[in-house]
Known about the structure:
The protein is mainly alpha-helical. It has three helices and two strands. The chain has one domain (8-97). It has helices at residues 14-30, 40-64, 75-97, and strands at 8-9, 12-13. A two-stranded antiparallel sheet has the order 1-2. Strand 1 (8-9) and strand 2 (12-13) form a beta hairpin. Helix 1 packs antiparallel against helix 2 and helix 2 runs antiparallel to helix 3 (75-97). The longest helix has 25 residues, at 40-64.
Amino acid sequence: METLLAERIFGVPFVALAAIALAVAVIFAVVEINTAGSDGIRWLILRWFHSLCWVLLTIAAVLRGKLVPGGEAFAAPAAVGAGVVYAVYLVTMVAGRA
Length: 98
């Protein structure tokens, strides 16, 4: 158990961060935000990309926490992927309001 909680950032174990990120991903997957008037790819982005961002953050935290042997090399790409997905989500959301 001690090795499971050994990897930390600002004193918080990556396992705890992964659990929190997964909970947020599930919440955003269940609770639908306002996608009224959206269709096609715009609806897909607004409906699922925010949850996908949190799933990628969960993956990054699990990999960074060394829960998967040899996974540390993929933690940063997963986090960058989360940032890209979130940027696409934000641009789509803001562009729809203009």
